[in-house]
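Appendix B, record 7
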Amino acid sequence: MASDSTFDVVSKVDKQEVSNALHQAQKEIAQRYDFKGVGAEIDFSGERILMKAASEERVKAVLDVFQSKLVKRNISLKSLDAGEPYASGKEYRLEAGIKEGIDQPTAKKITKLIRDEAPKSVKATIQGDELRVSSKSRDDLQDTIALLKGFEDADLQFINFR
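Structure tokens (predicted):
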């Protein structure tokens, strides 16, 4: 009797690439003429990324620069959790975080999608912040990977295909 084939669904981000993108954004913001004199900055604040500028439009422009640097380093914008700009004294601030792992509501959405759309032999189980997908048929698992590549809510990677 053949044993089950499995793969894991994870959502991971390379922290070094995020750091590199942040440093590139800092350099561009320091050099660009349209950011002169508006107090535009971007920096790590613990686990969060803090953007500051004198106006709401400028802080959104700082976010746009950071997003473009992330895309150039092959980091999906689905993993960037950016808030809304808010006034803090005389400046505007915007906080963003990097989402890692699959949270419970998203994991439940993925398992429901697999139950509804994937071949019937495929089973998914939640294991902490990742999912284990198993089936007797490797072809069914490959069909499931193709199905999950279209998932919109999170940046998913597929590892440990056995």
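Remarks on this record: Residues 15-31 form the longest helix (17 residues). The chain has a mean pLDDT of 89.
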